[in-house]
Amino acid sequence: MRNCISSTLLSAAGFVILTASSYAADAAGPAAAGFNWSGIYIGAGAGAGAVNHQIGLGPLSFNGIGGEGIFGELTFGYDHMLTDRLLLGGFIDVHMGNIGPQLEIGPLLEVKFANSYGFDAAARLGYLWNESTLAYVLGGFTWQHFRLDVSTPGAGFSADADRSGYILGVGMETVVGSNWTIKGEYRYANYGDEAIDGTGGILTLEPSTHTFHIGANYRFNSDATGPAIASPAYDWTGFYVGGALGAGEVVHDISFLGVIGFNGIGGEGVFGELSAGYDHDFGNFVAGIMADGNISGISTDLDLSGFGNLVDVKADYGFNILGRIGVKVNAATLAYALGGYSWAHFKAEANPALGGGSLDWSGSGFSIGGGLETVVSSKMTAGIEYRYSHFEKEDFGTAGAIEVEPSFHTVRLGLKYKFN
Predict the structure, then answer these.
(1) Mean per-residue pLDDT pooled into runs of 10, the chain (420 residues)
(2) Please, what sign has the CA dihedral across residues 79, 50, 94, 385?
(3) What is the pTM of this model?
(4) Which domains does the chain have, with CATH numbers?
(5) Is the CB of residue 135 less than 8 Å from the CB of residue 333?
């Protein structure tokens, strides 16, 4: 699964950047001197996401135990323009948060296993789509401190573990003032498959995270002059169609008898999406409505060596009807928020060796999120977008004894073509 996510992420980023470069010639008029991206910057931000713990017990592999949460971070970085459009840089950031699974049994027991703090150190390679907006891919080293807290009435204990691994990601950063930029960024992190201390190597744990970062960066070289790149002329009003590739995680929040709550059972994967919509330009802001449909590979798997996949739970397809409103942060880029109705289909399948069988269900819910969208030609835009989606409880005919409540953290990279 992690290889699929990594390859899809890099392929999608490459596709978007190459597409953008092919349309860069569609610019309107001569360009004035632009923003200087070279130099040192500092930044602060926050984000949300989910972690998936893949557990191994001898030949048995369960992907996995999932949890969700939020975080805050501080960043220090340096960028250098290699050409008028190509940028190479590096950064280090530190973060603190509470992303992780949680188990509650009434007032008797509470267990939390959180990604409490850590840092990422990575390089990034970027391409200027227009005079104000950078698209980039990133990769590098990550270190994370995990903390286990167990509390019962009058007692409790804690345990700690440190893991290192790698990160891959994509993002967009755009100018909002003489010194300031804002960014939207997706990162996938994997912390390796290692044995848990004291288990003799039988029990292993492989954490991975899907996170979306929003942040503001202050750049110290605003008095310098950057490359002169003209932005294509673009009218935001009109109908459009689009396509996107994305990745993310589902967390199934499970309750038993209304007393035991477990957040939860996790799954991860990639998806493809087609969309259509209409936007209207009101001057400084843009509002619109859209509908999209997706086919997804986000799944939770229970595997046994020699037998393959014993149980597979997939969020295999769905659709959304959403409204959005955005602010033009510069002449070529829109920062927006969205929300609306979501529907998803789920399917659980058992291995024929276990007697086979399948179970289907669907659920309605809502999605909220936001993103950055920027002009790459007079007819085309590109963007990055995060969504949190939450779906109604499903009790599988147990009269509420067992209920499953799914939620998703997903990020998509997309292109849109406008007809007028």
Answers:
(1) 44 42 38 76 97 87 89 97 94 96 87 93 96 95 93 85 96 92 97 80 88 96 72 91 97 88 90 98 96 95 73 92 97 96 92 76 96 95 98 83 92 95
(2) positive
(3) 0.88
(4) 2-418 (2.40.160.20)
(5) no
